[in-house]
Amino acid sequence: MNILKHILPISQQLSKCLATVNTQQVFATLQRHAAPSAVRAISTTAPRHDLMQFFDDKKNWGEQEVKHGRGWTKDDLRIKSNSDLHQLWFVLLKERNMLLTMEHECKDKMELFPSPERLDKVKESMENLEEVVRERNRAYYELETGETGERPGKVVPNELGIRFYYRAFEHVIPKYANRKWNERHKFTFGGSAVWKFLRLYRERLYNEKRKLRNRERNEVVHLLRRFPNIDRETLAQRFPTVDVEKLYKLDKIRMNHSVKSGSSSSSTPG
């Protein structure tokens, strides 16, 4: 009610002078008559920028590369306050909109978009910011209510038997009476055709994993035969699914190492 007492006389004055005043004059009128809380709720953009905020700086137009920094990591964002994260989100949002506009403009004019990795860094920063805010929300709800506060969900199968994570959300109509929801969401499967599909699908996934594992193993064997003195710990970190020590003990790798060492010793003068 107190806010209405401040706003009603202001609205009467604005209705009389809107035809003759611009945005800056209206904002000045609000500053003189309205409460400070009402003024802070209104935000305007400087007229000199208009739609140019959707485009990059003119000095970067036509450049092959634009200098930029790294993205925001989770460790950088965890030391920021909530208000700083709120402001940073809109800064990143404006930056993403600008980059998407420039990318579309470059594609339309068949030109090279300078430093396209900027868009990836902005998206990564926004994802990290969302994760940090979600961490704080979980910590708050666990402290106050003992729950995470996240939307509940569970892993369920679809009509083809493929399992996925379903996030629950509220409905006005109960589940037993919601005919459209029950027709769209069926978490059961059956039938010979579905079981055949699942068997072939699992076989395909297994073959893909087996081929990937064999490719990594062959690559490790090739590296060990070509570079016998390679650091095996680094190689194990690079290929965690391969037992490097077991491959290093193979006869063909040890024979290759002995042949190279013997040839190097025979080449040295006596």
Automatic annotation (TrEMBL):
Q: What is its main location?
A: mitochondrion
GO MF term (any one): structural constituent of ribosome
List cellular component terms (GO).
mitochondrial large ribosomal subunit
Where is this protein localized, as stated in its record?
Answer: Mitochondrion
TM spans (from-to): none
| GO biological process assignments | mitochondrial translation
Keywords per UniProt:
Mitochondrion, Ribonucleoprotein, Ribosomal protein
Q: Which PANTHER family match?
A: LARGE RIBOSOMAL SUBUNIT PROTEIN UL29M, RIBOSOMAL PROTEIN L47, MITOCHONDRIAL-RELATED
- Which family, according to the similarity comment? Belongs to the universal ribosomal protein uL29 family.
Protein name as catalogued:
Large ribosomal subunit protein uL29m
State the species of origin: Anopheles melas
